[in-house]
Amino acid sequence: MDGAIARLFAEIIDNVNIHSLPHRKTSVLLGLVNVHGEIQLCVSLKHLLNLEEENREKKARKKSTKRLMVVGKSGEQWVFPVNEIHGIHHFNPGLLQNVPVTIAKCKSTFTRGIFSWEEKHVALLDDELLFYNLKRSLQ
């Protein structure tokens, strides 16, 4: 993985309660969480990226404990729920493939490129665009 991208990831925290906010105006904002004594915003990348959960993912999420990923950039921290974490892995940037036309034409694509990992296609997200849209969605 590109070193600059790897530095975005701060930590994974388990069993944290998300405290909802009344009268929130966006589905991207899930609420507030306590991360080592600091109150942080908890956001939904699922809603920001317009992803739908499959039924098996919904069942698995209900059975599992809440796991949150903390990321940071330019002094800002973001916290969001995750279903699975496979660690941080290095990849050869030369193996990054172009985004398929069907995705590239999508109005809200956050994908910078695609690469293969363990016989699966993985999307590399554009962190600049992602953080910009997170801030914008909360205004």
Task: Name the features.
alpha+beta; globular; 3-stranded antiparallel beta sheet; single chain; 5 helices; 32% strand; 139 residues; 7 strands; OB fold (Dihydrolipoamide Acetyltransferase, E2P); two-stranded antiparallel sheet
Task: Walk me through what this model shows.
This protein has 139 residues and is of the alpha+beta class. It has one domain: OB fold (Dihydrolipoamide Acetyltransferase, E2P). It has five helices and seven strands. Strands 1-4-5 form a three-stranded antiparallel sheet, with no helix packed on it. The N and C termini lie far apart (32 Å). The model has no long low-confidence stretch (mean pLDDT 82).
